[in-house]
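Lab notebook, bench 4. The sequencing result for the construct came back, and we need a structural model before the next group meeting so we can plan mutations. Quick request posted to the team channel:

Model the 3D structure of this chain.
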Amino acid sequence: MLTINVAVLLAVIVFFRLRRRTEARSRNDEKMTVVIVLALGILIAPTPAGQGVLHVLEELASGVTQASR
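Done. Here's the predicted structure in token form:
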């Protein structure tokens, strides 16, 4: 039986949706893309990859905060 990871499927959908030209998108199409990206973020967040991205963003924010002092 073939198993499809939902996060990978959503990533592929986001990739193809974002390849389209901006002028060709309707407002509803843009809203749907935002919903799909949010769902992808929720699925990725608890994974080790998501935790790694969180750690990198924390380090970046810390560096920016210290640089502004």
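The chain has three helices and no strands.
Will bring this to the meeting.
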